[in-house]
Amino acid sequence: MIETASPDERQLLKLWRALDPEQRTTLIAFAEFLCSKQPAAAPAPLPEPVPRPERETVVGALKRLRFNYPQLDSAVLLNEASLLMSAHLLQGRPAKEVIDELEDLFARESNSFNSDDNALS
Question: Per-residue confidence at 1, pLDDT binned at 50, 70, 90?
Fold first, then answer.
């Protein structure tokens, strides 16, 4: 369920970290230039969302939400989702409350993802 960076992404991040702020600005400008030269790709159709069942486990909810939001990076969601899972398993927080918060988390990240995507256009 955890998405890891590809070797190319890791290499790019390694190079990014070695740059000074001015060079980073140049790299961002160049990346934006490259993106602007690409033909607009049709967005992949999203799967038909799986509705929330009446009785659902927290793990089942995570699987359902990952299916419903395939565009999101699991690594971005990992920390907060792990905290919510721990609150359920270790502190006895009710599954319904945790699932409600997981749904809010995925919806927030989706909105942020869509906003960022629109900013690139």
Answer: very low
| Number of domains composing the chain | 2
Alpha helices by DSSP H, 1-121: 7-18, 21-37, 58-68, 74-91, 95-120
Q: What is the pTM of this model?
A: 0.60
- Whether 16 and 89 have beta carbons less than 8 Å apart is answered as no
Check if the beta carbon of residue 119 is closer than 8 Å to that of residue 32. Answer: no
For residue 17, give the 3-state DSSP assignment.
helix
Reported as a single tens digit per residue, the pLDDT across 6-43 is 888 889 989 999 999 999 999 999 988 888 887 766 66
Token code pair at residue 78:
């990992």
Task: Please indicate, yes or no, whether residues 88 and 108 belong to a single structural domain of this protein.
Answer: yes
Task: Give the span between the Cα atoms of 82 and 96, in whole angstroms.
Answer: 16
- Looking at the structure, tell me whether residues 82 and 110 fall in a common domain: yes
pLDDT of 2 above 70: no
What is the domain range of residue 114? 43-120
* 21 and 74 assigned to the same domain: no
